[in-house]
Amino acid sequence: MTRAAIVGWGHTKFGRHDALGLEDLIVAASREALADAGLAADHIDAVWLGHYNGGLIADGFASSMVHAADPALRFKRATRCENACASGSSALYAAMDAIDSGRVRAALVVGAEKMTALDTAGVTRALAGAGYQAEESGLSFPQVFARYARAYAKAYGDPGEGMARIAVKNHANALRNPLAQMHRPIDLDFAMTVSDRNPMIASPLKLSDCSLVSDGAAAVVLVHEDMVPQFRRAVGFRAAAQVNDLLPLSAKRLVEFEGPRRAFAQAYAQAGVGVRDIDFAEVHDCFTIAELLTMEAMGLAGPGKASKALAEGATEREGRLPINLSGGLKAKGHPIGATGVSMHVMAARLLTGEAGEMTLAKRPELGLCFNMGGGAVTSCVSILEQIK
Questions:
Q1: Could you tell me the mean pLDDT of each successive run of 10 residues in the chain, 388 residues long?
Q2: How high is the pLDDT of residue 292?
Q3: Which secondary structure element, helix H or strand E, spans residue 240, and what is its range?
Q4: Residue 226 class from Cβ within 10 Å (0-12 exposed, 13-18 middle, 19+ buried)?
Q5: What CATH fold (topology level) applies to the domain 4-118+213-230?
Q6: Which of 85, 210, 369, 380 is catalytic?
Q7: Where are the domains of the chain?
Q8: Mode of pairing for the β-strands spanning 205-206 and 46-50
Q9: Would residue 11 show up in a list of annotated catalytic residues for this protein?
Q10: Could you tell me the CA-to-CA distances from 289 to 25, 203, 229 in Å, in that order?
């Protein structure tokens, strides 16, 4: 169990920001997090930035962009963490490790990405670089997750209706999140039907099954637990588990998420809880099949049973385990490096009752974040609770 706690957070709106560059987004989220914590920048010991880039923009050396948020940050140590779509959580975990070691007392962690500077084809090429090039060069990530969907269909039957229910749910949830990119409800018929507005991207994944191309940033202030009394509220970690699997798809069983399943098991063991103890979850729905497989990896549904659980409303806002109350990557948006930090910001807000219309009627005690990189390669699972 880590001795780090979240005491402040910031979050830009996700979407297309033509007038804002990567540095602008980083600065905005950083300043908001520091102000929210009420901590002067000169008390920050170190900075971590979660940022994928991968050719999305020319600025590859971005860690010290955080320093532009406040003159007092100049000369503070700063490190960029890259772990594909799990870059944000990896940056957060690196800061937590530094706090646990005693080398750092207070850290600023930022996740950010500027994606819309490229067209869709350019973004697709940049993201494909996170795949295993020796075997999967030229394979897009929609094609990667389409392989998971086809393998799952062969083993258990067509997951199409379950995937469509995930898309509909997450679009509906995003309507309550003013920071979400997509505020457009869809219905089940639309999500299940190929049309001009919902074309097939990589069979069986349609446009409605795919996350968004987004710009955005999120930030948190982490401090050692003995500093918590000086802050107005704090969110702690009951667990933080990271598992990394082999890169090649050929090395994995595509009917399940093996790495994520292990990460969930480790997190539950650290926290001394099970899936039934979790009150809500923000999970990595880069594609709807990913959320469906995550439901099984986390133990919410047995192998091949996620679609049935979705039809029963298990993950709806009023269900037994609400998933992606923020709208998820599917509708909140997916600025790659920002996603993991964003999940923790959303969870902290839900736990402290500061999530606006997203806030649950009954105050949750435990929230879960699952951030994934690549085709179930990096898996980061956090279990959070309010400690002040």
A1: 94 97 97 98 98 84 95 97 97 98 97 94 87 88 97 98 98 98 98 98 98 97 97 98 96 96 98 98 98 98 98 98 98 98 98 97 96 97 98
A2: 98
A3: strand 235-244
A4: exposed
A5: Peroxisomal Thiolase; Chain A, domain 1 (3.40.47)
A6: 85
A7: 4-118+213-230
A8: unpaired
A9: no
A10: 30, 12, 42
Distance of CA 361 to the CA centre of its chain: 24
Please state at what angle helix 141-156 crosses helix 288-297, rounded to 10 degrees: 50
The span from the CA of 79 to the CA of 219, in Å, is: 14
Query: Residues 6 or more apart from 247 whose CB is under 8 A from it?
Result: 131, 132, 374, 377
232: left (phi over 0), alpha (psi -120 to 50) or beta: alpha
* CA distance linking residue 239 with residue 275, whole number of Å: 13
Residue 105 CB partners (closer than 8 Å, separation 6+):
45, 99, 223, 224, 227
Looking at residue 137, its pLDDT comes to 87
DSSP for 46-64 reads: EEEEE---TTSSS----GG
Q: Of 157, 139, 113, nearest to 22 (Cα)?
A: 113
SS (H, E, C) 69-131: HCHHHCCCEEEEECECECHHHHHHHHHHHHHHHCCCCEEEEEEEECCCCCCHHHHHHHHHCCC
Q: How many CA atoms lie within 13 A of 51 on its CB side?
A: 31
Find the farthest-apart pair of alpha carbons in the chain and give their distance in angstroms, rounded: 57
What's the chain's length in residues? 388
pLDDT computed for residue 112 by the predictor: 98
Q: Which of 334, 344, 369, 380 is catalytic?
A: 334
Instruction: DSSP for 120-183, please give it.
Output: HHHHHHHHHTTS-HHHHTT--HHHHHHHHHHHHHHHH---HHHHHHHHHHHHHHHTT-TT-S--
Q: Is 334 a catalytic residue?
A: yes
